[in-house]
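re: that complex we talked abt at group meeting.

here r the seqs, copy pasted straight from the sheet so there may be weird spacing, ignore it
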Amino acid sequence: MKQLIDKLYQTSSLLPQEYKELIDNRNPEISEYLFEKARGVRIRNYGYDIYIRGLIEFTNYCRNDCYYCGIRKSNSSVERYRLSKEQILDCCKMGYDLGFRTFVLQGGEDGYYSDEKMVDIIRSIKKGYPMCAVTLSLGEKGYETYKAFYDAGADRYLLRHETANEEHYGRLHPSKMSLKNRKKCLYDLKEIGYQVGCGFMVGSPYQTTDCLVEDLQFIKELNPHMVGIGPFIPHHGTPFAGETAGTLELTLFLLGIIRLMLPQVLLPATTALGTIHTKGREMGVLAGANVVMPNLSPVDVRKKYLLYDNKICTGDEAAECRYCLQKRIEAIGCHISVSRGDHKSIL
Ligand code: SAM
Ligand code: FES
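got the structure back, here u go
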């Protein structure tokens, strides 16, 4: 197995059957070997800097019904909310004062925010904070809409592909959603000029090693600037309520592989990782991640944006999250970077 990791380290890619062999035969010793290499690659590219992004969860309305997601349309027990432009700008002000230089606007697919409304919000943020990056995570839109948001000043877009296997995609989503369109969106975003992020949940129901190999191959093909992966965690109000969560161990292993595949990628240690283990995000960084995304949403809405059960930090103020993460990152020998934290190819 170590030879496969050496090959991945040297060439940044493996054959499909090699990825499968590596994933299926992993053990603690192999994992540690992988993480050591992945840390080395992260340090070579980004030093000990860990980038912070301020996450603003601005709406939990969603027209979609993804089977895994706590804020899916059919979950009638969710108390829905929307933030106004002023509330979003207040979050940015607080975030700026705390040293954030990237704001991530994330939400369900909510028709209330027309293209005009979003363009106005993006322009207002960029006017107030011209030196900051704006990342959007609003789901699937048409080319023209993505272009309008980009022209308004948006810099980056996160759209997890969720799974690169057609059949698996169909088992996670209602039939009106398609992997084909998800992929088209990602290629449109790239063509327009965004820094783009794809990704998937680790351990989602029906996921096999073959699915993961297809995910890795798709990631290599798309060559995104960011990759968001985190464990699947069941939400009690969804069709997947009784399913088993993804593991810390496999998520860390995949983070390590992705760092070696795309040495310069921006790779978050996600909130979901911090939810399944108290030290999950620190372990993510030690496995090759270089981004953390503390929550900047107003405290009174945080408990309403529950994608999965037991989500961490839902009762904390933005400043508490910011300094808690700083302490955690410093405890493992890294430091929080107050900068936009663009992908290396942009600098
Ligand atoms: N609506 C946007 C979209 O579809 O990209 C952004 C919001 S969506 C809630 C953000 C991500 O949350 C999804 O891409 C999915 O991977 C993740 N997510 C949803 N439910 C989850 C769960 N139960 N466990 C872990 N992650 C989950
Ligand atoms: Fe739309 Fe989850 S189903 S954000």
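couple things i noticed - The pocket of S-adenosylmethionine (ligand 1) is lined by residues 68-69, 106, 108-109, 137-139, 159-160, 162, 201, 230, 232-233, 235, 272, 307-308 (CB under 6 Å). The chain is about 45% helix and 10% strand.
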